[in-house]
């Protein structure tokens, strides 16, 4: 192989175009499936890369251009061998062949600089190979990304994306345009901001997604698929045909770029123009959630990207999920179309049932449902009907069973803090942030984590702005209400009294044993005694709190506790004196040792 590479380099050094073409085609055919490289040939590969770049500066026939770019694509797979390709000159050469290089800025009548893409080569294969090479280089090297920023590559890509309705660009040109834009925005905040602000990225990419999916708009925020006829007499909703693999691939790249540039949109104020663009995008995303492909894995990935992006949109824009008119066969609740909300709920439960990577796969949909329920009354009531129907089972623990409520309550004790907090927050919102209702459906033990974090262990609190609900207590719940253990959330079997048959003195002795054990654990810093503060949050107990507790104990039971409290200062003083004596003895022995050494 070494000799072959040297022979190829010799052919390139002759500068003969035909000899170079034959040598490169042989190398490319041999290395087409090579993705790992040894260190033995690093110098030769670097030299080959330099020679190929030099060839691209010449006026070559398309077949030779293509062979050179294929070689660069293969060489750029090796992250340790991209040095020849990350200079400004090399990146400029590659971007020119990709058709996204920017010419010198022209100034329009308003004094603004207009950047025009420098597209000199209409050969689509050459463009695709150049784009693939730039993608490899930017994936492996941060310096190349900075050079791409300096060369304004993202502006050139954006200019070509505006031509999304033209047939001259095939799938591969469009796909690798999007892939390169994703790589650039994923690694540079400045390019994310530039795409969002200067290039109006949300509208630009929404329009490109619209064209990719072939949408039409029967109403402002209602989306349909071009070519899909709706039968007004049918009781079933119009079934959307599966999207092609090519459309799904491009659509997912668009969704990933939009995610990059909108990551903070729900944490900042947006103006009316931005809100309108986000609502328009939200309507498209709703359509994405209701669409599918022939491959189940592709459908799930497509839905996952759509959900992640929906979670970035400002909460005020999520109303587009409920805007489509109710049609025959759609899920209707309180006069509102709940198809999208029901799809989100089913998606979340599927991820929950799988039990793998819940934080990555389930939380986006669960967070989206929580926020939608918080701000939309119809959504909250629909979800409550699905997740927290009127309580009938009062014999089993809330976390036992296969109903969605049981599954979510089990998540409230998950080892992942984010997962358990999101599950608790979702149920708390469905309970209108009512502590008593929350405990009713989950049990005090499961609810304690959220209640402690919010300072609601004493109950009460501000339940937020929620509409009134009708009384949903079932006959079974009313009959058993007085017997339900609020900690476990179920009717417990009657247990024998462990103190039955004991005298009052024996009971007091057992109580004091327990106090002494807690005291010992506390002094050893194994546990920290806590108490419920006036604000409902947990606070540390101090000696003053203990005295107040002693004063609240009935007079006949105070004797032993008072003795304990009175003995504590004496014990501490004795221990302190003993420590001082030990320290003095150690110092004395240390002085004697030092004298002996001298």
Automatic annotation (TrEMBL):
GO molecular function: G-protein alpha-subunit binding; guanyl-nucleotide exchange factor activity
Ranges annotated as biased composition (Low complexity): 561-572
Pfam families to which the protein is assigned, alphabetical: Ric8
Location of the region described as Disordered in the Swiss-Prot/TrEMBL record: 554-598
UniProt-listed InterPro entries: ARM-like (IPR011989), ARM-type_fold (IPR016024), Chaperone_Ric-8_A/B (IPR008376), Gua_nucleotide_exch_fac_Ric8 (IPR019318)
Compartments where located: Cytoplasm, Cell cortex
Taxonomic superkingdom: Eukaryota
Signal sequence residues: none
GO BP term, pick one: G protein-coupled receptor signaling pathway
A single Gene Ontology CC term: plasma membrane
Keywords, in A-Z order: Chaperone, Cytoplasm, Guanine-nucleotide releasing factor
Biological function: Chaperone that specifically binds and folds nascent G alpha proteins prior to G protein heterotrimer formation. Also acts as a guanine nucleotide exchange factor (GEF) for G alpha proteins by stimulating exchange of bound GDP for free GTP.
Assembly and interaction partners: Interacts with some GDP-bound G alpha proteins. Does not interact with G-alpha proteins when they are in complex with subunits beta and gamma.
Family under the similarity heading: Belongs to the synembryn family.
Name used for this protein in its record: Synembryn
Organism: Salmo trutta
Gene name as annotated: RIC8A
């Amino acid at each position: 192989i070494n000799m072959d590479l040297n022979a190829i380099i010799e052919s390139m050094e002759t500068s003969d175009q035909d000899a170079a073409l034959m040598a490169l085609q042989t190398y490319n055919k041999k290395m087409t499936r090579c993705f790992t490289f040894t260190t033995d040939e690093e110098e030769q590969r670097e030299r080959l890369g330099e020679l190929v770049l030099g060839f691209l500066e010449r006026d070559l026939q398309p077949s030779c251009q293509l062979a050179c770019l294929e070689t660069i694509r293969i060489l750029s797979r090796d992250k340790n061998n991209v040095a020849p390709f990350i200079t400004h000159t090399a990146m400029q050469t590659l971007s020119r062949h990709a058709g996204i290089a920017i010419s010198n800025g022209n100034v329009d009548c308003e004094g603004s600089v207009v950047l025009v893409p420098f597209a000199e080569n209409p050969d689509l294969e050459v463009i695709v190979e150049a784009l693939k090479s730039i993608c490899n280089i930017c994936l492996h090297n941060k310096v190349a990304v900075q050079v791409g920023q300096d060369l304004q590559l993202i502006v050139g890509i954006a200019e070509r994306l505006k031509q999304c309705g033209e047939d001259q660009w095939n799938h591969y040109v469009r796909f690798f345009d999007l892939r390169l834009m994703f790589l650039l925005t994923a690694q540079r905040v400045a390019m994310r901001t530039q795409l969002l602000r200067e290039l109006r990225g949300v509208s630009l990419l929404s329009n490109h997604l619209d064209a990719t999916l072939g949408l039409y708009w029967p109403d402002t925020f209602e989306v349909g698929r071009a070519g899909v006829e709706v039968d007004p007499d049918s009781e079933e909703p119009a079934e959307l045909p599966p999207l092609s693999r090519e459309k799904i691939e491009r659509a997912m790249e668009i969704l990933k770029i939009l995610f990059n540039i909108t990551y903070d949109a729900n944490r900042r104020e947006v103006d009316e123009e931005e809100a309108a663009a986000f609502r328009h995008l939200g309507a498209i995303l709703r359509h994405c959630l209701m669409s599918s492909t022939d491959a189940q894995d592709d459908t799930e990935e497509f839905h996952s990207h759509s959900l992640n992006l929906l979670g970035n949109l400002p909460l005020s824009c999520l109303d587009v999920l409920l805007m489509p008119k109710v049609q025959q066969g759609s899920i209707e609740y309180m006069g509102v179309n709940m198809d999208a909300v029901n799809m989100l709920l089913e998606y979340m439960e599927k991820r929950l049932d799988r039990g793998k990577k819940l934080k990555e796969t389930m939380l986006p949909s669960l967070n989206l449902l929580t926020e939608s329920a918080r701000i939309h009354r119809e959504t909250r009531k629909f979800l409550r009907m699905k997740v927290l129907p009127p309580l009938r089972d009062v014999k089993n623990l809330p976390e036992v069973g296969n109903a969605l409520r049981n599954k979510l309550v089990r998540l409230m004790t998950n080892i992942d803090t984010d997962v358990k907090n999101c599950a608790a927050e979702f149920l708390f919102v469905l309970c209108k942030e009512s502590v008593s209702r929350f405990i009713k459906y989950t049990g005090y033990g499961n609810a304690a984590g959220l209640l402690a974090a919010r300072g609601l262990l004493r109950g009460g609190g501000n339940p937020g702005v929620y509409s009134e609900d009708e009384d949903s207590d079932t006959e079974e719940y009313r009959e058993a209400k007085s017997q339900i253990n609020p900690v476990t959330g179920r009717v417990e079997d009657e247990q024998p009294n462990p103190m039955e048959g004991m005298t009052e003195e024996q009971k007091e002795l057992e109580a004091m044993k327990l106090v002494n054990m807690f005291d010992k654990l506390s002094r050893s810093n194994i546990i920290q005694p806590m108490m419920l503060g006036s604000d409902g949050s947990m606070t540390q107990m101090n000696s003053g709190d203990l005295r107040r507790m002693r004063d609240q104990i009935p007079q006949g039971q105070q004797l032993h506790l008072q003795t304990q409290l009175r003995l504590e200062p004496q014990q501490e003083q004795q221990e302190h004196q003993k420590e001082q004596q030990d320290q003095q003895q150690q110092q004395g022995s240390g002085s004697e040792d030092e004298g002996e050494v001298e």
